[in-house]
Amino acid sequence: MTADASLRHALRRPNLKDYALPGLRELCTRRGWPAYRGDQIATWLYKNDANSMQAMSNLPADLRGAIEVEFDLSTLEVVTTQHSKDGTIKMLLGAFDGARIEAVLIPEERRVTLCVSTQVGCPLTCSFCATGALGFSRNLTTAEIIDQVLQARRLLGPEEMLSNIVFMGMGEPLLNLPAVSEAIRLLTDPKAFGIAPRRVTVSTAGVLPQIAPLLEVAPIHLAVSLHATTNEVRDVLVPLNKRFPIEALLETLRQEPRINRRRPVFFEYTLMEGINDSVEDARRLPGLLEGIASKINVIPMNPHPDAPYRPPSGEVIDRFTAELHRAGVRVTLRRDRGRDIDAACGQLANRTPAVAAESEAETVAPTAIRTD
Ligand code: SAH
Q: How confident is the model at residue 342 (pLDDT cuts 50, 70, 90)?
């Protein structure tokens, strides 16, 4: 961090968007106002998209003034948006300290999904993932996670509604659980975003001790990045496997009472040619998953310059999924979205030409600073 950035860090006030409803109510009551004022603030921020306290016209002026002095309302700044031929939009967002993250908006026929990031970079160094190659800078705050949603919503047309949120962008959500939990509370609270919990999915590479605490937050869906059927292969693809190996991961899921047929776990399986795409792999999977209510999402590897892996041929992909079908496993093949703009799974690495040049020169402007 530059001297400038650490000064900005030190002078920062808490952001109003770091608080879910209970926190907003408490910050009102602690200052002598009734709790419902907290609900009104949430309505302004999340239903009316207010960007200043002054806009909150049904709140008493002294309350607006007090909150304005103590709390920050600044947002992540949109640095660039890239539009894919298939309608996918990738946003590059800048934080107060110059950090850059990405969020991907995926409009489909019957839903609009936003894929959000939870960390700047990622500490897990999965060998096939572009974000892993970036290294890890820091956790995002709740406000920064929520800003991705607010900014994405502004890109939608009047008829479009953001219907689904997936925590599958940069970072490992379960290594940033406090901020992620508070964001989930805001997303699912009818007084804030009001998104049904089953339309929120959090993906993890398998940070086992944090799975139960995550599922306690709300009845959301859990996704688990599996990618291999032996520890030997998974150790290489997902180094976290050395700490939490396949058997321990699957046993944790098997014992988890909140995972059931109504709320199955989604296993992500990125298929890489010659690595994890054999018929033996496909035959091992059903046995491994026995006793766990689950669906498998097969994702052909999205190639990128930081990894030596490639997707298998269509034939091999079909053979793999057919084998799973035959064994009665519920399997879907994830369609490729946004590959032409590096917005597909595992391609998030701030690879926007102009920005790459900027960060090389270490002159990242403090674009997210707002003092109003
Ligand atoms: N750290 C969490 C959240 C990231 S989710 C997790 O690992 O689950 C991103 C998903 O994209 C993960 O399932 C990841 O394994 C997958 N992925 C990463 N790189 C990919 C690539 N190059 N091609 C296809 N999928 C990839």
A: confident
- Cβ–ligand 1 distance for 118 under 6 Å, the answer no
How far is ligand 1, taken at its centre, from the CA of residue 302, in Å? Answer: 10
Q: Which pairs with CB-CB distance under 8 Å and at least 24 residues apart come from 299-302?
A: 299/268, 299/269, 299/270, 299/271, 299/334, 299/345, 300/270, 300/271, 300/333, 300/334, 300/336, 301/128, 301/270, 301/271, 301/272, 301/273, 301/346, 302/336, 302/339, 302/344, 302/345, 302/346, 302/347
Residue nearest to atom 9 of ligand 1 (CA): 168
Q: Are 293 and 259 in contact (CB under 8 A)?
A: yes
Give this prediction's pTM.
0.92
pLDDT at 218 over 70: yes
The answer to whether the CB of 268 is under 6 A from ligand 1 is yes
Q: Is the CB of 270 under 6 A from ligand 1?
A: yes
Q: Which residues are catalytic?
A: 102, 345
Kindly list the structural domains of the chain, giving each domain's residue range(s) and its CATH number in brackets, ordered by start.
3-70 (1.10.150.530), 77-362 (3.20.20.70)
Q: Cβ atoms within 10 A of the Cβ of 352, count?
A: 19
Q: Residues 57-81: pLDDT tens digits?
A: 999 999 999 999 999 999 999 999 9
